[in-house]
Design goal:
about 80 residues, mainly beta, two-stranded antiparallel sheet, about 25% strand
């Protein structure tokens, strides 16, 4: 994890991103989401990309015990 600084710029909070964590030069706008005390920054319109690229993010025991999924017999068409 990399530490950086937070400062005030024209009555707005700003964060100085280290060179290793820079966004691509093509990114001009970002989405910022609050997740508890964390802030998640993503290029505007690409928030779902990280959801699918990071793999499963649920507890190991997620749906460990669940109701039966047996389906009733149906009449043939």
């Amino acid at each position: 994890m990399t530490a950086t600084t937070v400062f005030i710029n024209n009555r707005s909070q700003a964060i100085r991103l280290p060179a290793a964590l820079r966004l691509p030069d093509s990114v001009k706008r970002v989405d910022v989401r609050a997740r508890g005390c964390e802030r998640v920054i993503a290029p505007l319109g690409q928030t779902w990309d990280s959801f699918f690229l990071n793999g499963p993010q649920v507890a190991d025991d997620f749906m460990e015990t669940r109701a039966s999924q047996d389906q009733p017999e149906r009449e043939a068409l």
